[in-house]
Design a protein that fits this description.
Blueprint: H1 4-25, E1 43-45, H2 46-58, H3 62-65, H4 68-72, H5 83-91, H6 124-127, H7 145-161, E2 166-169, H8 170-177, H9 180-187, E3 198-199, H10 213-225, H11 233-240
Antiparallel strand pairs: 1-2, 2-3
Helix pairs in contact: 1-7, 1-11, 2-8
Length: 245
């Protein structure tokens, strides 16, 4: 078993490298108060949910956690496939099963006056959602295609890192981790199961179109060589889980 502290250190490295990569190479239109994309359909891993829950508890924001049960009844998107399961289907040239969308797309339960009170600790799905132009009402954002690929790869690596964890809607995961037994097992690196949720899978391969290879390689070179207490990120990852990188 791998204690969650080691996984969280590596998760923070992924967050920082991605945030820096975007900030130094792209100009985004998103500003504080722009919450069009902040819905209750954010997905992620138990590792990210643990990090977010710890932040909410340390900041004394139990009131935000109290909103979760109502949101959970609002017709959330609950994914059947993890990012790496979908990658495996694509690499195997198999048609993946269809996902069922949620009944509606309500706001994130953590939002306050269109601002995120846990912005520093937001999960990767939120970090990778932005636009190079102001989103029109009911419209879509504009993200550079190569950045979509890099974001997908980061999601694959985060899932790979969270060995023994599960993938799902962040509202469901936050509620599950508030259970003392489940939270204890996650914190101690034990494998968990939650009904209706898919276990995280290792990276089967990276989904990189040929036209994005240069940008992806540049990003991965920075990530894999990042110092992690005297070891590279690649070396530290291998201590957590057998790595194909």
């Amino acid at each position: 078993m791998v204690a969650i502290e080691k996984k969280l250190e590596l998760l923070d490295v992924i967050y920082r490298v991605f945030d820096d990569f975007v900030a130094h190479r792209y100009r985004m239109a998103c500003t504080r108060g722009c919450a069009v994309c902040c819905t209750h359909d954010v997905t992620g891993t138990t590792l990210e949910a643990h990090r977010l829950l710890d932040s909410l508890r340390k900041s004394g924001r139990q009131d935000l956690l109290d909103r979760l049960p109502e949101t959970a009844q609002a017709g959330l998107f609950r994914p059947r496939l993890t990012t790496n399961t979908l990658a495996m289907a694509c690499l195997s040239r198999r048609e993946p099963p269809d996902e069922s969308p949620g009944r509606d797309q309500g706001p994130c339960p953590l939002l306050e006056e269109d601002a995120c009170p846990v912005y520093r600790d937001r999960p990767f799905a939120c970090r990778s959602m932005f636009s190079q132009r102001v989103c029109p009402p009911g419209g879509e954002g504009e993200i550079p295609p190569e950045l979509v690929t890099i974001s997908t790869i980061c999601s694959q690596i985060i899932e790979h890192l969270d060995n023994g964890g599960i993938f799902g809607n962040m509202t469901d995961l936050l509620m599950a981790l508030q259970d003392a037994n489940t939270g204890f097992r996650v914190a101690n690196g034990e494998k968990i199961q939650l009904k209706g949720h898919s276990p995280n899978k290792p990276v089967p391969g990276l989904l990189v179109p040929q036209e994005h290879q240069a940008a992806v390689q540049g990003f991965l070179n920075v990530l894999f060589s990042r110092d992690c207490g005297g070891r590279t990120f690649r070396e530290a990852m291998s201590e957590v889980r057998d790595s194909p990188f």
